[in-house]
Amino acid sequence: MRQLIALLFLSLLGSSLSAAEKPDIVFIIADDLGWADVAFHGGNAPTPNLDKLRSGAVELTQHYVAPVCSPTRTGLMTGRCWSRFGVTTPQNERALRWDTVTLPRALKTVGYDTCLTGKWHLGSLPEQGPNHFGFDHSYGSLAGGVSPWNHRYKQGPFSVTWQRDEKLIEENGHVTDLIASEAVHWIESRGDAPFFLYAPFTAVHLPIKEPEEWVARVPAGITGDVARHYAASIMHLDDAVGRILAALEKKGRRENTIVVFTSDNGGSTAENNDLKYPDDNCPDGKIPGNNTPLRGEKATVYEGGTRVATLLSWPAKLKPGMFQGVAQITDWMPTLCSLAGATPKQDLKWDGINLWPQLSGAEPVKPRAIYTTGPNFNASAVRDGDWKLIVTRKGSAKKDKAPAAETTELYNIATDPNETTDLSTKDPAKVTELRARMAELAKADRDAVADD
Fold first, then answer.
1. Helix or strand or coil: residue 372?
2. 343 pairs with which residues across the strands?
């Protein structure tokens, strides 16, 4: 069956590039990293490796993701809005139909080696893991974020989740070190073929408990047990990014490697020592995720929940700078497929676009509309040019229940990026216009639910 699926994919994509022309791709995702958790956005924890990466990269200043993790990962893997798959919350059920043309599957058809090291969370059973969706090699958590030392997900049927190539294993060490080491070893083992390395870290997702050597490096001005461990987690993540970049340099592959760094959603202020996870002796207190000056946090469709720090580096092709256009996690599959020469021969119904012409300066930045759904469809947003409409629903819309009550908010992100002034009552015509746009974009919701 898997051979038949592979043949199907080969018929869907073609390549016009030679192996030497194809860039290597490293895509790094932090977990719950707030807008201002990084030093280059004013964070109080030093991030020297990310600062250095930024100095030679393009920063995407308006890069949007989903408000929570599994949806963002769905958007990256498919180039489509997560709501098309009915995926709006962190979930352990399989997210994608078996025949989905994922990003790694597309890249494999044009000669790429593919690897995931880190968090999958698009199907938490081994038989639903990354190797079934285009990854040659996988390592890490099949489920979501894990306790840092025992590597356990939440108590229940998916708690034991650490795996290598979809076989559950036990490992010793801190989760950030394990993910980074696997990435480094995989890079070191590469031959001449182009490669795609996907490194979705669990840092800085709760529960956090950092090695004492990292806590000791935290600036003295950061006080409080959880705050110091959180800062240490950011610094530890930064070091892991540095290790991956150093491995690329040592291998002689850095110049022609596309490196993307981003986060799956905005920062969180949830309780750190959440005992839904098996106890790992983590410190008690609220996570100090910092999205300043943006409004909102993880699980909200406000800017603080969905607009994240994002860097793109490709030394051979891309000059450092700032990209002020609107981008979304769904754009990466069309963009990377184009750069790798993986050209679809049929409509994959991408919601994302190929950003490369704008990123490279070949075309001017263009206004566009992007669509966002929050957990359980409890809120939706559409960003169209400078304007953003948010519709929040309370109650049930089921046939035997009263209709869900809706509230609307309207913001001009160009003049009010922190969403402080709701203009919905002052500009009802714009509300009507954007509600119609939202309804149009929502028509494809749930058209690819994994019910096969």
1. strand
2. 14
Q: For residues 9 and 11, give the distance between their C-alpha atoms in angstroms, rounded to a whole number.
A: 5
Q: For residue 203, give both structure tokens.
A: 């840092």
Helix pair angle (225-251, 175-188), 10° resolution: 0
Note whether 149 and 190 are within 8 A (CB): no
The dihedral of CA 44, 149, 250, 335: what is its sign? negative
Percent helix, strand and coil across the chain, each to the nearest 5? 30, 20, 50
**What CA–CA distance (Å, rounded) separates 182 from 431?**
49
Q: Is 314 helix (H, G, I), strand (E, B) or coil?
A: coil
What does pLDDT average to in each consecutive run of 10 residues of the chain (452 residues)?
48 63 97 98 98 98 98 98 98 98 98 98 98 98 98 98 98 98 98 98 98 98 98 98 98 98 98 96 98 98 98 97 98 98 94 98 96 98 98 72 83 98 98 98 98 97
- Global pTM reads 0.95
CA distance 308 to 266: 6
Helix 48-55 and helix 225-251: axis angle, to 10°? 50
- For 247, the token pair is 């491995």
Report the b/e string of 92-124 with b at 16+ CB within 10 A.
Answer: bebbbeeebbbbbbbbbbbbbbbbbbbbbbbbb
Q: Determine the angle formed by the axes of helices 332-340 and 69-78, rounding to 10 degrees.
A: 30
Distance separating alpha carbons of residues 367 and 365, to the nearest angstrom? 7
Show the tokens assigned to 354.
Answer: 């190929």
Strand positions, DSSP E, 13-64: 13-14, 24-30, 58-64
Q: Residue 428 half-sphere exposure, CB side, CA atoms within 13 Å? A: 1
Whether 307 contacts 35, CB under 8 Å: yes
